[in-house]
């Protein structure tokens, strides 16, 4: 099949491209020719520009499927283009894909569309959207998800995947921020980090995307995770150690970041252009409370089964780091 991937140089996009290029023809949308070099060893055709590129309809011709991974993931509520990218960009790509005759659209969403700042235990896909989002990222991704689902029709099927905390090899999203906080000595566990959290290794997400090429009910949402929910502290400690660093032991009570996050939200409403406080409500809701996902539906409809265990993922990280040090 011929598959179009938006955000192909992003963390999820490039790994999906590498995975699928082994058996499919890939066309990848990238805004940056320099970043595209990261895929120099992958067989694909590049299209340069953003989601608002006028020529997209022509470039999507003959494509069977679109995998939409492009997103502005800013959690600080600072991005001035987050709505344009996540909402308008999704709408533009959907329209272009429909006009071009694409048959299937796989939208990569996030568990963040449901976050409230309160624990979410074994949540399923039928959970309602919250009345108020915890931040701009959650809000724009929720709007994008709604637009994608509403675009579904008999000739154009839409499938939504919602992973949580994508991790593993080649991570340029979450872990670099955590490692930077450790380096700057600003990292602290919240309430000991003992609450459970679902995670999604990049290999498992790629596997789920591949399954969605052929399976899945149109206009349905599927949570994707590693299937072995762990304490947040266990996950992050394992990742930190895999990167060769000592796990910090600094801890703060949960009410402190919650107060800071709520003050930040209030401050930003009163003074929209003010700089964010150390913790935004988007960040708090993402990483300071339990969030676990029920993936039963993905197992049933997509025949999804996690292929990478937590320990295997850590071993892969250690091997990758050792190889880089030797080269």
Automatic annotation (TrEMBL):
Domain NAD-dependent epimerase/dehydratase span(s) in chain numbering: 3-220
Gene Ontology MF term list: aldehyde dehydrogenase (NAD+) activity
Gene3D superfamilies recorded: NAD(P)-binding Rossmann-like Domain
One GO cellular component term: cytoplasm
UniProt superkingdom: Bacteria
Pfam annotation, one family: Epimerase
Protein name: Nucleoside-diphosphate-sugar epimerase
Annotated source species: Marinomonas polaris DSM 16579
Taxonomic lineage: Bacteria, Pseudomonadati, Pseudomonadota, Gammaproteobacteria, Oceanospirillales
């Amino acid at each position: 099949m011929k598959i179009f991937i938006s955000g192909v140089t992003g963390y999820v996009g490039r790994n999906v491209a590498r995975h699928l290029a082994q058996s499919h023809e890939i066309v990848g949308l990238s805004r940056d020719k320099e970043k595209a070099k990261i895929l120099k060893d992958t067989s694909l055709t590049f299209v340069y520009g953003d989601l608002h590129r006028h020529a997209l309809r022509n470039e999507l011709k003959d494509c069977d499927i679109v995998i939409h991974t492009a997103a502005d993931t800013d959690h600080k509520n600072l991005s001035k283009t987050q709505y344009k990218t996540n909402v308008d960009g999704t709408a533009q790509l959907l329209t272009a894909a429909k006009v071009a005759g694409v048959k299937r659209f796989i939208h990569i969403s996030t568990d963040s569309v449901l976050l409230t700042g309160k624990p979410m235990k074994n949540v399923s896909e039928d959970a309602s959207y919250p009345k108020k989002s915890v931040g701009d990222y959650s809000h724009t991704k929720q709007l994008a998800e709604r637009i994608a689902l509403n675009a579904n029709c008999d000739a154009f099927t839409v499938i939504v995947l919602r992973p949580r905390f994508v991790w593993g090899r080649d991570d340029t999203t979450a872990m670099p921020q955590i490692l930077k906080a450790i380096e700057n000595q600003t990292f602290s566990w919240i309430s000991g980090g003992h609450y459970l959290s679902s995670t999604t290794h990049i290999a498992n997400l790629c596997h789920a995307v591949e399954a969605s090429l052929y399976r899945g009910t149109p206009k349905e949402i599927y949570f994707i995770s590693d299937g072995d929910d762990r304490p947040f502290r266990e996950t992050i400690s394992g990742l930190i150690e895999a990167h060769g660093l000592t796990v910090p032991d600094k801890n703060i009570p949960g009410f402190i970041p919650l107060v800071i996050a709520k003050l930040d939200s209030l401050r930003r409403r009163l003074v929209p252009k003010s700089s964010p406080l150390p913790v935004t409500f988007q960040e708090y809701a993402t990483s300071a409370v339990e969030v676990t996902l029920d993936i039963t539906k993905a197992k049933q409809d997509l025949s999804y089964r996690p292929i990478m265990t937590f320990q295997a993922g850590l071993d892969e990280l250690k091997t990758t780091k050792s190889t880089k040090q030797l080269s």
